[in-house]
Design a protein that fits this description.
- The structure holds 2 protein chains of 2 kinds.
- Chain A is mainly α.
- Chain A has one domain (21-475): Cytochrome c oxidase-like, subunit I domain (Cytochrome C Oxidase, Chain A), CATH 1.20.210.10.
- Helix content of chain A is 73%, strand content 0%.
- Chain A is built from 17 helices and no strands.
- In chain A, helix 1 (23-58) packs antiparallel against helix 2 (73-105) and helix 8 (254-265) packs antiparallel against helix 10 (294-309).
- Chain A is globular and about 65 Å long.
- Chain A starts with 22 loop residues before the first helix and ends in an 11-residue tail after the last helix.
- By secondary structure, chain B is mainly alpha-helical.
- Chain B folds into 3 domains: 3-39, no CATH class; 51-91, no CATH class; 102-223, Cytochrome c-like domain (Cytochrome Bc1 Complex, Chain D, domain 2).
- In chain B, strands 1-2 form a two-stranded antiparallel ribbon.
- The chains are: A mainly alpha, B mainly alpha.
- At the A-B interface, helix 7, helix 8, helix 9 and helix 10 of A face helix 1 and helix 2 of B.
Chain lengths: 481, 229
């Protein structure tokens, strides 16, 4: 594995100051590590909760924790979902987006304490919200489960912590821009807007009846596509050419991918409401948006897979830790896009409605795509910022195989299980009891893969924290290798 | 133009200025080269690719399909259309069930009837009989509908006062629903308290009387005697 031999030495390092870091990197080291460490802690917490939730769901008798009120499925699943999204997904992308745009814009973060403050607020609000979820105080809207007073704090914290990429973009020295920058800027603008509007329409000034459901579906689709999707796409656009040392093939198509993605992703929400009492035209707009999302998916497929396909790119990607994760994610994104289009249509959608299929699609986007890309990015960025090597190559292997297999098993179980489930539910000759029994095999798979994911995340955390601890001496203390 | 930017299109591995081996290009260079790529797409370096033109057609096809799908599956963008498999009338946004609406009736009354009967419904003494508190419009809805559809000609006594009226067949030019709205308004305005009238009833009466001449009030009374004086 070539990764272990990487010196962690970036180009163009300045003569003064810390010899290992560019000025850009040394400025953002503090906030980056805060975001990154908290993201990994939340990821571990979410994985443990994921195992508990899978065990609860997998047992028809109520699971091993059936006598513990705090650990009922409703609490654990909601807390797991929120911790994974807001704890892991947001903190990690705060770190990566900041690093990415600082690098691309040669931006020196001056008021890093503001970002740190935002990160502290974000994580405190998150802790408070999760405690309240366990106390049984949650709203009925997925990903908005935190009681409403948490919302404004998260929004302000986002502005403090997540807005720096936009500053970095605005202060870039040249007029040239790169695809990664567009996607990160779009993500940094889209999330606070949709979050505030959703908070307002659903929790603070609740709109009447069905409008809440529409606003909620809009919020979730924006959160998944424009935060997770766009941020992870930005990372793929960066790391492929960066590590392979070649240009993106068909790069002239990338602006089309960007604009069509931003345009259609925001409209895909109502397709989750097919069959609900929302106006027909709105449902159809959702279907059309899901279908049109195939345009950015095709273009990114040309960009990513085209780049990887030439000159032995795939084998080089396989032998490089960063690219192994990133190209896994790139393939997952293409798969997600195709599934999203096909199952946006009414005929297929009516089969998988009310099953685990939607959760499978979400896992495909947030885990198999976004999280794997984040892992890959970490293997690239962290050695540069800490100046040390990854302590254990074995743990890197454990991390990759556990998460990759865990993700594949989870997603197959949710998708195929959901499809079977939907077919049986639509068949009047199959009793509900039979349907529930048929799903128990898939539930067992889900439990095993939740454990696999936990193992992978523990390996990742051990490795990352080991590396950070090794370099925790003051930056001027010199190199460790 | 910088010398090292000359052949940006050929996917050749590129080294950063510091020659950092497998690390790839520096970030500044990465941005520069790609921005070059998106500007200079007119100079294909090796061979001509059909991909761009194919993609343009493909995406135009998607857009065309999207337009078709939206127009065919959106129930005319009516806010009340929820279900793709609902009856055509419901999907088209038309009224599922008729609701007699006195407000619509008032507008129609002002346009078609108020010239004679006045907006106050009191008519003109000696010329046009009143509708307010009139026994003719209360009670049997068929009497009202027939009067509107076919008109009245001859001596008529309303609220103890005799008129020699000539009411044209106003209703012949109106739709069933419009007549139902007018009749509902007339039967509920100015202190009148009769039941509303449905459009199906109007259609029924129109079919029964066909295309006939004006009623003589006395004949109409034989068919539908006044319920109250």
């Amino acid at each position: 594995m070539t990764q272990e031999n990487r010196s962690g030495r970036p180009q163009g390092r300045p003569p003064e100051g810390d010899s290992r870091l560019t000025r850009t990197e040394s400025q953002l080291r503090g906030p980056f590590l805060l975001f990154f460490i908290s993201s990994v802690i939340w990821l571990l917490a979410a994985s443990v909760l994921g195992v508990i939730a899978a065990l609860q769901q997998g047992s028809l008798a109520g699971g091993p924790f059936r006598d513990c009120e705090i650990l009922t499925y409703g609490h654990v699943a909601a807390a797991q979902h929120n911790l994974f999204v807001y704890g892991w997904g947001f903190n990690a992308f705060f770190a990566l987006n900041l690093w990415l745009l600082s690098q691309l814009g040669r931006f020196e973060l001056r008021n890093g304490w503001l970002a740190t403050l935002g990160g502290v607020f974000w994580n405190l609000a998150l802790t408070y919200g999760v405690v309240l979820i366990f106390a049984g105080n949650q709203t009925g809207f997925a990903l908005l489960e935190f009681p409403r007073e948490v919302g404004p704090v998260l929004a302000v914290a986002f502005l403090l912590a997540g807005f720096w990429p936009i500053v970095a973009f605005a202060r870039r020295p040249t007029g040239h821009t790169f695809a990664s920058q567009w996607f990160v800027v779009a993500a940094s603008f889209a999330f606070p807007l949709t979050y505030l509007l959703a908070q307002l329409l659903i929790l603070w000034q609740p709109a009447s009846g069905v409008v809440q459901a529409i606003a909620h579906s809009w919020f979730v689709s924006n959160l998944l596509h424009l935060w997770f999707g766009a941020s992870a796409l930005a990372a793929v656009y960066y790391f492929l050419p960066k590590v392979l040392g070649r240009t993106i093939s068909g790069y002239y198509l990338a602006p089309v991918a960007f604009w069509s993605f931003v345009l259609f992703a925001g409209w895909t929400g109502p397709s989750a409401l097919i069959g609900a009492p929302v106006p027909l035209w709105l449902q159809s707009v959702g279907v059309v948006a899901c279908a049109m999302l195939i345009i950015p998916v095709i273009i990114t497929a040309i960009n990513f897979h085209g780049t990887l396909s030439s000159e032995g790119g795939w084998s080089r990607a396989w032998n490089d830790t960063t690219l192994r994760f990133v190209s896994f994610g790139a393939v997952a994104f293409t798969l997600f896009g195709v599934l999203n289009t096909v199952f946006g249509f009414r005929g297929y959608n009516s089969v998988v409605r009310f099953t685990s299929f939607a959760a499978g699609q979400e896992q495909l986007l947030t885990y198999a795509f976004a999280s794997m890309v984040l892992f890959g990015a970490t293997y690239f960025v962290l050695p540069r910022l800490t100046g040390s090597r990854w302590p254990s190559a074995k743990l890197v292997h454990v991390h990759f195989w556990a998460t990759a297999l865990g993700a594949i098993a989870t997603i197959i179980a949710l998708l195929v299980g959901g499809w079977e489930n939907g077919k049986q539910l639509a068949d009047a000759s199959v009793s509900f009891q039979q349907v529930a029994k048929a799903g128990s095999t898939w539930n067992a798979v889900l439990s095993v893969s939740a454990v696999l994911l936990l193992v992978g995340h523990v390996a990742f955390a051990l490795n990352a924290f080991g590396m950070i601890l090794k370099s925790s001496a003051p930056a001027s203390a010199g190199r460790h290798d | 133009m910088n010398d090292r930017n000359r052949h940006p299109d050929n996917n050749r591995p590129r080294r950063g200025p510091s020659g950092a081996g497998s690390e790839g290009p520096s970030d500044g260079r990465l941005v520069e080269v790609h921005s070059q790529l998106s500007r200079d797409k007119d100079e294909p370096a090796e061979g001509f690719s059909l991909t761009p033109i194919f993609i343009v057609f493909l995406f135009c096809g998607f857009g065309f399909w999207a337009g078709l799908y939206l127009t065919q599956n959106s129930g005319n963008f009516a806010p009340s259309a929820f279900d793709l498999n609902a009856p055509k009338a419901a999907v088209a946004g038309g009224p599922v069930a008729f609701e007699p609406d006195a407000a619509k009736g008032e507008k129609l009354f002002l346009a078609n009837c108020a010239a004679c009967h006045q907006a106050t419904g009191l008519g003109v003494p000696g010329a046009f009989p009143p509708l307010a508190k009139s026994a003719w419009v209360a009670g049997s809805e068929e009497r009202v509908i027939k009067a509107i559809l076919a008109g009245l000609a001859g001596e008529i006594e309303v609220n103890g006062v005799k008129y020699n009226g000539n009411m044209p067949n106003i209703g012949a030019g109106l739709k069933d629903a419009q007549i139902a709205h007018i009749a509902t308004y007339v039967r509920q305005a100015w202190g009148n308290t009769a039941e509303p009238v449905m459009d199906t009833k109007v259609a029924e009466v129109r079919k029964a009387i066909g295309n006939r001449a004006q009623y003589i009030p006395a004949d109409l009374l034989k068919e539908h005697p006044l319920e109250t004086k």
